[in-house]
Amino acid sequence: MGESRSIGFFFLLLIFSTCFGDQTSDKITELPGQPKNVGFNQYSGYVTLNQQAGRALFYWLIESPVSRKPESRPLVLWLNGGPGCSSIAYGAAEEIGPFRIRPDGKTLYLNRYAWNNLANVLFLESPAGVGFSYTNTTSDLYTTGDKRTAEDAYVFLVNWFERFPQYKHRDFYIAGESYAGHYVPQLSQLVYERNKGVQNPVINFKGFLVGNAVTDDYHDFIGTFEYWWTHGLVSDSTYRSLRVACDLGSSTHPSLECMNALRAAQIEQGNIDPYSIFTQPCKDTSTLRHNMRGHYPWMSRAYDPCTERYSKVYFNRLEVQKALHANVTALSYPWQTCSDIVGNYWTDAPLSMLPIYKELIAAGLRIWVYSGDTDAVVPVTATRYSIDALKLPTIINWYPWYDNGKLENKVEKEAR
To answer: All domains of the chain, ordered by start, with CATH?
Structure first.
């Protein structure tokens, strides 16, 4: 009996050691150019989804500072859109991560508004073929769409929680922006459905939040074109052409007439930064124009071409990739902020996420939708039209939001 107990204890210890062993090998000691004594732990590496296809996703976990007790804070998964763009390049390095890259492409400085001040943030490069995430099956790159992206992200989560068991049962949220307006609710729906009937689920899903999110093609079209017109970005005639040519069409696969109208609008907009229309554009506009071309001219890619250049330099440095435990397959091409192959060959993309919103609202999950008002790519008018289509009762009327006496935004709260 004593021997059996010893064997059982050894087996449990082996499992425990294996989980934390993988976790330990993923720990980042220090990134090149990183400020000293940042006070928080970081982990990065790969989680395999499909051994046969050789498909694996790259993640970067940035915990809350030790002084803020990360063990008591929720876990937030962050996804960028595109489709085909890197959450490391944009979400982590340009938006909500703790570090910013300096123009030299070598040194980092701290972002005072980083989300890891409030939560443990898990950045995921998804789907395979984006950033450092990879597949050994070339056809995967040409057959990716919304459905497989959600399924793969779910498999990633299940396997990731096994590697990081301390996060099991922790309050968990999913967040993202732009085309992640599809990724986030679709993955949320999948987690919710797989949790049904499970007592004390490992993935303790509480809700999702999205910013300037692609939500509903019909309302996104109307809101986007209206924003362009009311902000003087397009002519009256082009606005009318857009409303006719793109009416009831697919944003992922627009008609030829719609594409022609969109090209005319792009010419009229000229050299502006469409993600921040009142900001002086980067002097090197080639990146911006590159990001706006293709099948989805105004909703593809992400923000700020100048900082994007810094990301390309930094994350292509071999010492950075080594510190991140990245590029284990030794890519034959440079790391890119967005994959044109993944984006241009995107397959399935439902016209609307609103049915998922309704389902998850009815289930009692928390949803927070926010939208910046200087983004002409997925503008605030598109967000407002989409949310209005849900026909939710308003429980707190529109009011100004002040931060230390400074007017920052307008807020409205709607009930389930």
So the answer is: 22-214+308-414 (3.40.50.1820), 219-296 (no CATH)
